Amino acid sequence: MKLTGAQILCEGLVKEGVDIIFGFPGGAVIPLYDTLPQYPQLRHILVRHEQGAAHAADGYARATGKVGVCFATSGPGATNLVTGIANAFLDSVPVIAVTGQVRRDFIGRDAFQETDITGITLPVTKHNYLVMDVNDLAVVIKQAFHLARTGRPGPILIDIPRDVFLEQADFSYPDRVDLPGYRPTLQGHPAQIKKAAKMINEARHPVIIAGRGVNISKAYGELKHLAEMAQIPVVTTLLGIGCFPEEHALSYGMVGMHGMVYANYAIENADVLIAIGMRFDDRVTGKISAFAPHAHIVHIDIDPAEIGKNVRVDVPIVGDVKMVLQALNKQIAPVDHLDWIGQVDDWRREHPSIDIRDDDGLLPQYVVRQIYEITKGQAIIVTGVGQHQMWAAQHYWFNKPNTLISSGGLGAMGFGLPAAFGAQIGCPDAPVWCIDGDGGFQMTIQELGSIAQEQAPVKIAIINNGYLGMVRQWQQLFYKGRYVATPISCPDFVKVAEGYCISALRVKHKEEVIPAIEQAMAYQGPFLIDFMVEPEENVYPMIPPGATVAESIEEPKQPIKAISDSKRLKVSNI
Amino acid sequence: MAPTKHILLALVEDKPGVLNRMSNVFRRRGFNIHSVNVLETIETEDGSRPGLTRVAIVVSGSAVILGQVRKQLEKIIDVVKVLDITTEDVA
Ligand SMILES: Cc1cc2nc3c(=O)[nH]c(=O)nc-3n(C[C@H](O)[C@H](O)[C@H](O)COP(=O)(O)OP(=O)(O)OC[C@H]3O[C@@H](n4cnc5c(N)ncnc54)[C@H](O)[C@@H]3O)c2cc1C
Ligand SMILES: Cc1ncc(C[n+]2csc(CCOP(=O)(O)OP(=O)(O)O)c2C)c(N)n1
Ligand SMILES: [Mg+2]
Questions:
Q1: What ipTM did this prediction achieve?
Q2: Based on the domain organization, do A375 and A418 belong to the same domain?
Q3: Which of B75, B78, B79 is the mutation pick for testing A, counting most A CBs within 10 A?
Q4: Which of A24, A291, A304, A437 has the most CB within a 10 Å radius?
Q5: Would you say residue A387 lies in a domain?
Q6: What are phi and psi of A438, to 5 degrees?
Q7: Is A176 among the domain residues?
Q8: Residue A26: which of A76, A96, A97, A85 has the closest Cα?
């Protein structure tokens, strides 16, 4: 059967189980878009900017566990995807980006809207392809999906010249891939597992630090079993949040720079640290030489290049978390660590970290906590990057996996709204809340248009502090309070939303918070709330960059008083 | 640890761009490559798939960092295997 390149691509997508594509058309992909109506199984969702398409595909993938797909045209369409692709790369998210390219005979000649997108994305994709022969296309698609979703997942870019979309080839879809250079190790080495088991069985102060690899591997049951059987306190990274229920008695929350003081103390005092599917990011370790100074470290990771990259490891186990834990758990003897757990509980009492102070002002932490209460902890929370992101991680408690969706490795402001849109498209019946900053929201604000067009019922909470708050906090604490370029004005978000035919409210006082959230929840469609929070609230606890747990800054008893509302920048006074 | 000269030998798929992907791993860390030699491709018997090529790279760096680099090279999908043959006998 002869098909065009565009048809082959669509056939491949259908075969791989794709039903949603986020994209934006242009010259080089018109032949592809022209073919889409022949495939009603493929629902194309128009975004307002290609960055939005990549972030939406990313949010969709994290929320559903499926591969996210986005389309863009050549040149500016392709370059607009780059931030979104880099984001998916750093957080190991399976995304397929299909870009149009200029005709083959124009490539390399600086043709109209030609960019070398495979060159540009080489360091931020797991792999990428420039398809110069339509006969290769089916194999490329098969490989791309295989690579995106297996091993350590990641984004794959497929660049297809316009004339390849139009050319015909015999179509048959391969049922297997032939990639001699790609053989992820899934089963951990038995001798290493045995060593790890012995170490854990002999530990007196063990701690588990669980990361996004647990979510990717869906090893929630195995993790819980290990923690309960051997009574091991569990802390998580930002991206590991939700892989272990945060209301569980053995859960001690997030670690790292803005992690819980007691979680960081637990690591500092651990004698055995079991790191599962996490990569010791510097936001987690702080000063490397002072990280887990007394611990023997077991590191389970599917990517051999992660082992020993940032910290010394005593027992490396390369493999898939689920398979490794299944083998490991068989060799773990049930024990009790009541003294140790009692000790960590004492730290928790002494350093509550997440108590919200009683304040008449509108505290951002209070807003997040009320969203938690009213959604009963069942929502999918998608964040931007900054202070509000940390408050969302600290003050919402996640009991279900993949319900906190956040840009961790790249920390890309502008991720929140499009990723929430993608998550909502993937989970149409789930309550999805986008908790965003007033700064980051303005970076991808145009996706309100996509949300309105699709009537995706995303609820948007803007934590409006009038600042690029996280940077302001650093300026306050480490740059003598010189707020250079961090006060930021904003449009009237309520009016902007209404301009997009999205219902919206502004909340200025504490007592309006609960009714506003309830109103948003009761409303059938998308809804925006602009929370005018205390402008100079800081995220605590905080371990200053390069410092140790002992140097943690906790919430001061007397908070540094906030500036008055009238000092906020308004559009009208600039 | 003092940098020493290392010879890395990679077995890679004979595909466009593979050298670029490899050199990127060095460029990103600001490494200077002393020399690269691409040896003749070993074709598969039936020609059903692209053959494999050997690439020899000489660089200076500490053993620890080069151990990392070697793993990152092996992560490249088109790279099948990388050996540090500085001290190993090549059969
Ligand atoms: C403003 C800001 C502040 C931050 N503060 C903090 C903080 O205080 N604390 C914190 O923890 N983070 C913080 N982060 C996030 C941080 O930058 C990292 O993104 C995060 O720590 C990474 O978590 P991770 O290692 O679990 O996930 P990833 O970076 O996604 O790494 C996952 C690891 O799991 C492995 N893996 C994948 N699949 C499998 C599998 N099937 N089996 C085995 N292994 C697998 C991968 O190879 C990888 O090594 C912050 C980010 C921002 C933007
Ligand atoms: C694209 C991008 N540019 C710059 C930064 C640096 N940065 C990190 S947090 C932050 C402030 C974010 O402000 P806002 O969205 O209002 O959130 P807040 O911290 O106030 O909650 C900035 C500028 C970034 N992470 N991403
Ligand atoms: Mg802000």
A1: 0.90
A2: yes
A3: B75
A4: A437
A5: yes
A6: -65, -25
A7: no
A8: A76
